[in-house]
Write a structure and sequence with these properties.
The complex is a heterodimer. Helices cover 0% and strands 49% of the residues of chain A. Chain A is mostly beta strands. In chain A, strands 2, 4, 5, 6, 9, 10 and 11 form a seven-stranded mixed β-sheet that branches. Chain A has a four-stranded antiparallel β-sheet with strand order 1-3-8-7, with no helix packed on it. In chain A, a hairpin with a 5-residue loop joins strand 4 and strand 5. Chain B has no helices and twelve strands. By secondary structure, chain B is mainly β. Classes of the chains: A mainly beta, B mainly beta. Chains A and B meet through strand 5 and strand 10 of A and strand 5, strand 6 and strand 11 of B.
Amino acid sequence: NAGVMQNPRHLVRRRGQEARLRCSPMKGHSHVYWYRQLPEEGLKFMVYLQKENIIDESGMPKERFSAEFPKEGPSILRIQQVVRGDSAAYFCASSPGSGVQETQYFGPGTRLLVL
Amino acid sequence: GNSVTQMEGPVTLSEEAFLTINCTYTATGYPSLFWYVQYPGEGLQLLLKATKADDKGSNKGFEATYRKETTSFHLEKGSVQVSDSAVYFCALLTTSGTYKYIFGTGTRLKVLA
């Protein structure tokens, strides 16, 4: 059973460009979470999605960031007009359901560098 | 609100030394508690977890006990190896609203041969 897949693993963008990060959850998992890790810091929750629905986006910056999890295909985290402060590692996690017993399984992350 | 506080690193130990990484939490309700490990350039791997008070999680020689009275979940290992060098994150899974992780800032462990 393949784990959570993320691509690309590394992404370099210039200021003002768009960044698209992809996440394929584990097979059988319908819940996806995105986290951001700034250098030398812990992970911060961004958004929680189920298929075709955003459940909780309380950690998402209000502008430039969006996320989707379509019926078919991977979840996408989109950052428009990137700035240097967006440079970070972005991790996706998935779980089969939601609940206090559910463990989230993490992908290897996408490391975004904004020049 | 919910929060997790970890001891600051880096922690440097000799091989076969005893390891303790402190973690305390503040939470509403009864969260599940986790330790994750991150090796250089990789994602987070679940190390162990505990879902209720007095539960002990254990894996690969690591242990942590969910202490409700002290709101703690300290990570311990009796004899560390060079291969244990990594960053360790303590986390809680919130039980109010949607279920999401709150992470500590991580503790870097370096084990010397």
